[in-house]
Specification:
Structural class: alpha+beta
Order of helices and strands: EEHEEEHEEEEEHHEHHEHEEHHEHEEEH
Shape: globular
Distance between the termini: 64 Å
GO molecular function, one term: ATP hydrolysis activity
Protein name: ATPase AAA-type core domain-containing protein
Pfam families: AAA_21
Helix content: 25-40%
Number of strands: 18
């Protein structure tokens, strides 16, 4: 389970931001939200099942997802996909002289195997500056290892002695530890690989492929089809097929470069996704099934729902964390709402999966859908840095309209648009 994520451009820099899935000590107007939208880890810690992040264009919403994507990628790959002279692909904050040459800061607090862990690091584009891993075995937080430049100090509970000398300056000690079969490091990287999934609502190729693999491997196939049907897309059945092909079977009009690549890898598999719709006669009587190709015949919204269905069902069944940037793109507001309600449900989400999404869909800004601590905002300050804050920080009435107040600017995080009446000057 995700507890907190922090990112910034220097540990002491005032613009560091923290996003938290810890439930605040508040009572919602709709008491069912305190039951369905929250789950208890123990008597002291309660976590949220979903959270929405709002903000104007260019306010930093997507950067939060990108920062978490970088952290995940660097944790998993830094020990095996880089050479000692390679730069680290971190993007520093470029709009402040205070942060020039300073490291970027990343920290993740999560639950794994019933224990709380806190892992983080600071990096520049040339090296790892610091790195740390703590956990809570019983009550108090305990250090497992801590790194300052190339000086790495271990506790007796982190069995990785001797690996310090094998850790390059541009690689994470945690990642190197996993390469050398340190059990806890392997489990943490397995957790972040399998449980923390970050996808874009604009570019669905990767998770479309995941949904296709679910069909091919018969993983959650029935549940995926059921979800697609219930979202009222007029679909009665879905068929996914794969066939082997060779260079000789390719159409003549295919670009030569692509043919050369396929020839190099020795062929591949062609995937077809058939979407079935019911066909009726002039009297409205059902007569037969008509099959369409997903890519050629279906709407962009239908394509996105199909692509999302696999990750959504898997997250719900496996208790995973799903982070979706541009969640509402190409989706009807009622479909977006239905997906959110799946996660905010004891029945549909018994394994306490967590959904975090970036959106402009104010239809979801409703006190019957979210508690105040589930709503977050991003806003750029005058210096171009992002401020991240929760609606729980505001004292508002129980019957306040989140959506109306947000559009009116009471919470900030909206674009302030100048007078456009004289944008086009008349030559008359």
């Amino acid at each position: 389970m995700l507890i907190e994520f922090s990112v910034g451009n220097y540990r002491s820099f005032k613009e560091q931001v923290t996003f938290s899935m810890v439930a605040a000590n508040l009572v919602s107007k709709d008491k069912s939200l305190d039951v369905n939208n929250v789950f208890a880890i123990d008597q002291e810690l309660k976590l949220l099942k979903s959270a929405a992040i709002y903000g104007a264009n260019a306010s930093g919403k997507s950067n939060l997802a990108k920062a978490l994507s970088f952290m995940k990628r660097f944790m998993v790959n830094s020990s095996k996909e880089t050479q000692s002279t390679d730069e680290i692909s971190v993007e520093p904050f470029r709009l402040s002289t205070e942060t020039e040459g300073k490291p970027s800061y990343f920290e993740l607090v999560f639950l794994m195997g019933g224990r709380k862990y806190r892992y983080g690091f600071e990096v520049t584009q040339t090296r790892v500056i610091s790195e740390w891993l703590f956990y809570v075995p019983n009550v108090r937080e305990t250090k497992l290892f801590e790194r300052k430049l190339d000086n790495i100090k271990l506790s007796k509970n982190y069995d990785a002695d001797g690996i310090q000398q094998r850790t390059r300056s541009n690689a994470l000690f945690l990642s190197v530890s996993a390469q050398f079969n340190v059990d806890l490091a392997e489990k943490i990287l397995e957790w972040i690989t399998d449980k923390l999934n970050i996808i874009s609502g604009l570019h669905d190729e990767d998770y479309l492929n995941y949904t296709v693999r679910c069909f091919i491997n018969n993983k959650n196939r029935a549940d995926i089809i059921q979800l697609i049907k219930k979202l009222d897309l007029g679909i009665s059945e879905v068929q996914v097929e794969q066939e082997d092909f060779t260079i000789d079977s390719l159409p003549d009009e295919m670009p030569d470069e692509l043919k050369k690549f396929i020839a190099k890898v020795g062929g591949g598999k062609a995937t077809s996704i058939g979407i079935s719709h019911r066909k009726f006669d002039t009297d409205g009587n059902y007569k037969s099934i008509e099959e369409f190709d997903l890519e050629s015949h279906e709407s962009e919204g239908t394509k996105k729902v199909f692509a999302l269905a696999g990750p959504l069902i898997t997250a719900l069944k496996e208790g995973e964390i799903l982070i979706i940037d541009e969640f509402d793109a190409r989706l009807h507001p009622l479909i977006s709402l239905a997906i959110v309600k799946l996660f905010n449900s004891e029945e549909a989400n018994p394994n306490n999966a967590q959904l975090i999404f970036m959106t402009h869909d104010t239809n979801l800004l409703n006190n019957k859908v979210f508690r105040r601590d589930q709503v977050w905002f991003t806003e750029k300050n005058r210096y171009g840095a992002t401020d991240l804050y929760s609606l729980a920080e505001y004292k508002i009435r129980n019957d306040a309209s989140f959506e109306s107040d947000y559009i009116k600017g009471r919470y900030g995080a909206i674009p302030y648009i100048g007078n456009l009446n004289h944008l086009i000057e008349s030559n008359v």
